[in-house]
Design brief:
mainly alpha; three-stranded parallel β-sheet
Amino acid sequence: MCHRKDLQQFEEQKQAVLRAAREGTVVVSAFISPRERDIMKQLMVEQLPFMQLMDNGFSDRYHPWGKAFYSVAENRHVQLSCWTYQYQASDDDKLISREMCLTMNELVRVISGVNDWWWKKVGN
């Protein structure tokens, strides 16, 4: 998870996450913030495994789109959601609440078994 207070350390955090992924760790994130999405893009470029918590459930005809279609099909990317699918007619309907963000972040902690600050403790 990328926190605003660690903005100056983002490159360090990004490199720690990527290094862990290159060494076999499966990255788990909701990829909510733009910095988290930047990490996800690099994971896709390097074809490294990751799990993505989604802010909406899956419709009965759901399939990943764009680059996620291929990363999921190649078993490098798992998408999970704890919510029931809600139809969203426009981008205006896609606002994510703070409570949903907190829930997804807590699920990341539970699934990964590490706290938000693990990357500060690893040797850089």
